[in-house]
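Hi, can you check this record?
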Amino acid sequence: MVPLLIMLLGLALLIYPVFATQWNNWLQSREAGSYQHTVTQARTLQPVELDDAIKAAQEYNMHYTDGPVLDPWLSRISKDNVQYQEYLTQLHDYDAMAQVAIPAIDSNLPVYHGTGEDVLQKGVGHLFGSALPVGGKGNHTVLTGHTGLTNATLWDNLIKMRKGDAIYVNTYGQMMKYQVHEIETVLPNKSDTLRAKPGEDLLTLITCTPYGINTHRLLVHAHRVPMDPAETAVFEKSGSLMQWWMWVVLVLFILALAAIAWWLYMQRRKETDRAQTASSTIGDLRVAPRWPTE
């Protein structure tokens, strides 16, 4: 019994990362889908309120996003900061402020205020100090996401993106398309490429790299391009829930399960054989001839 319990415990430890990652991926995908559904309904029922919120965010961008943009993991701002509190009042009607979809890597995630660890564990964070994701010339929105978490995919596949790939952002039903024009790997303190440029509508995605080491930052730069109305369906698609390593773990899990089943079968067979042998021996003793004694 003890060896069996040890083997089952080992199996549970083996499969746990897959289940944990799948569960969190599902939660994040559900949140992105819920946001898309909610703002789509609101866009029909209360378009004025949504337009007012976007206009307020655009006004905010004009006055509060001309300062330096710092690395989201090295430079943490106090949540008690007056400007940060003002920032939190923008696009705050829903749990998420926006939704970002990247078809090239099957990613569809909610976007939240700030880049605190609580945010980056459940989705994508908007970098405070950069423009809110409402578009407009002279704006540069910066979104950040984790790579290498043991219990969620998030932006593990961002490294697979290439020039020309599309990034879609849905903010309060305002849907925007950006096209990747540059990908670079930089040191954490190099943030000059995150500044806004006059006359350009820019978006940058940031994650840590290399995988599991995180000494540098991967920056995916994109610019606003026209969006075909037919492309809005991209926000309704769920992100990919399976990665290559999950298939490897599942195969190992199935093989280990089969091995345990075979071991149990052989153990049961040995017990049956021993029982049959013992029964035959007892039977032979019972029917053994008794020689007459003188």
